Amino acid sequence: MHCVCLKHLGWSKEQLISKDNEALPQEVIDAWKRFELARVAGTPVAYLTETKAFYNLDLYVNPAVLIPRPETELLVESAIEQITRALKTKVFTKAQRLSIIDLGTGSGAIILALARHFQEQGLADLIAFTGTDISDQALAVARQNAGELSLSFVNFIKSDWFSDLTQDRFDVILSNPPYIASDDHHLLQGDLRFEPPSALTDGADGLQAYRTLIRDSVGFLNPRGVILLEHGYQQKSALQSLLLQYGYSGVQTLPDLGGNDRVTIGYRQSTNLFEKR
User: Is the pLDDT of residue 4 over 60?
Assistant: First the structure.
């Protein structure tokens, strides 16, 4: 009941413990009953508490955005590794920053996790962080998270993938797009029943977003840049083929902690900013 009490009483966690003998107001009891009924009906806990932990961040979430998954932390970790190499390879400055874009940002989980990491490393001033989404509601959530996490330097833009962007080139392109096929039975199970369908499925074979992202990324990625894409465990071959088709090199796929193929990476050139030194 902690989340309900904290929201309605305005108490800190410490106060909640120290005042544990006090009777709860009826409004809190009523709120808990509504909470309980919603949970019995299957509503995800993250939507009920309006919070989800992700990569050491406590994010605000609501039904307008996908609930961040632990598997997506691999995309963040992979991007951190790539970006760290680039910062060691080339001199970036506040005037000429390394540019990162997270397409389909949702709650902002990925780009905000990166921003927090490099802020803690004292390197955030050398990086331009951008997140995009086609949903105004999702962008509102992402901006709220940025404000609450003191990461307001992250820029959020409304765009249907690349279509509304004005910047010519990025050094790093990231995305965790909808990749579940429309006929996948998982869409009718568990938390997925309550999450925004447009964040889960492309309404087709699960590869439509990748076809657009990979095709159009060629015109938006710096010649020595990198693209990192999260995907389903059975989509490795399809993504690697698409990246190779559009001229990417050094294509590789990384497994998540469960051993499932999860993140595929490609470079615009064989000589790039992200080579191991």
Answer: no
Q: How far apart are CA 39 and CA 45, in angstroms?
A: 7
What pLDDT shows up at residue 197? 87
Residue 199 Cα distances to 104, 175, 273, angstroms: 8, 12, 31
Residue 251 lies in a domain: yes
| CA 220 – CA 248 distance, rounded (Å) | 13
Which pTM was predicted? 0.89
Mean pLDDT of 237-243: 98
In a domain, 16, yes or no: yes
Query: Same domain, yes or no, for 33 and 163?
Result: no
pLDDT at 42 over 80: no
Is residue 223, in this structure, part of any structural domain at all? yes
Question: pLDDT digit string (tens) for 96-133?
Answer: 999 999 999 999 999 999 999 999 999 999 999 999 99
Q: Sorting pLDDT into bands at 50, 70 and 90, what band is 187?
A: confident
Same domain, 79 and 187: yes
How would you label 63-99 residue by residue, b for 16+ Cβ within 10 Å and e otherwise? Answer: bbbbbbeebbbbbbebbbebbebbbeeeebeeeeebb
- One DSSP character per residue, 182-195 reads TT-GGGGSGGGGTS
Structure tokens at 241: 């083929």
Q: Which domain holds residue 73?
A: 64-267
Q: Tell me the two tokens of residue 265.
A: 């990476």
